[in-house]
Write a structure and sequence with these properties.
The protein is an all-alpha fold. It has two domains: 95 residues, no CATH class; 56 residues, no CATH class. 64% of the residues lie in helices and 0% in strands. It has six helices and no strands. It is globular, with a radius of gyration of 20 Å. Keywords: Membrane, Transmembrane, Transmembrane helix. This is DUF5009 domain-containing protein. It comes from Helicoverpa armigera (Cotton bollworm).
Length: 172
Amino acid sequence: MLAYNHARARIMRWVFWSIIFGVSGGALCMFSKNGGPIPVNKNLWSVSYCLVTSSLALAIQAALYFIVDLKTNNLWSVSYCLVTSSLALAIQAALYFIVDLKTKWGGRPLYYAGQNALFLYIGSELLKRNFPLHWALSAPTHAQLLATHAAAMLIWLAVGVALHRKRIFITL
């Protein structure tokens, strides 16, 4: 951001790297889902998968930067987008290392929540203003909101684990 002060330069670089990552990821999987030396569909975090998703992330970031920052007077800052996307990539890399390479963790309890993801999402949206998931705060601080939302997330995670233990899977 400091090296490239102009919006056009930023967008051009994001689009350029998006194309490079997309072509590299596509070449590794021979532009198919299950083909090539490193298929996209082989592991959740194969090299081709990371390159293709990074390509899409950069393209979306360039589009959002153009739409949000340049057209609507900085509702989202570019630094916010960069920090959140870099955190997502760092978490993805750490989980790939822990789960796939070192096989130290099997993904539980997140695996259990994933078995009923749609049910948990709809339930959280429908009940997000009810007591155990939300409590009234007069002048909420960031820490209070974080605690509220973390507690709600843990409750929904417990619901996911309970449904999995009872072998209840709600799908479409």
